[in-house]
Amino acid sequence: MRLFFISLFIIFSTLSCSTKNSLNPKIGAITESIYAIGIVKSERSFELKLGVLTAVKKYFVKEGDIVKTSQPLVMDDSGTVYKAPFSGVVTYLPFSLGETVAPQKSILTLVELSKLYLEASVEQQGALKIKSGQNVQISFESFRSQVFHGVVRTILPRNAEFVVQVEVKDLPSNILPGMNADLSIEVMKKSMAILLPLAAVSNGHILLKKGSNPDKIPVTIGVSDSEFVEILSPQLTVQDEIFLPKDSAKK
User: Structural domain tally of the chain?
Assistant: First the structure.
């Protein structure tokens, strides 16, 4: 009787170990995304700068004012009146009346807050996968429960960086230029893919059960996310048994 229980314990332990250290592929949807930190920008902004030494004689507006196209903004000491080139919000008036302004110093900043977009810098590997029209999920730290949706407008090089611009609509009025957002850019999507956990693939190989022993098999992978990876070859089925590498099984 004692020998019977010992044998039963060994069999149970072997089955538990096998269950823990192996798994089967699954069929499911997977989306590969590129993550980046974006900054909110306005489609149009205007800085009033003059090429000569001058002074502010009169302001027709104050910071925070909403102005219309062609509305007077400021008069310099020569009596010249400068008007708004578009409708927007006055965000910056750095000089006092009568104060001398050096050439090319900004006297006034006007920003259009009704049309915003996002811009982010991405690494080269990510930039290679980003294309116009791809969907983007956008979230702000202050309200994580709400996700906004955008579309990639373009990807372009700028000063040895790769910059992606994202169009987005229906942002709340309290979202302002200069704010940061988390971007998740969907670069590839599959609805029916053979999937394995990332932990099952080690150095481009999997341990596929052949008979009673696992064989080390090279794999070709497709779409991947933070948890799973698509296996393109070999052609696996959901009945195949895949062993986890020893380092993964210990975790």
Answer: 3
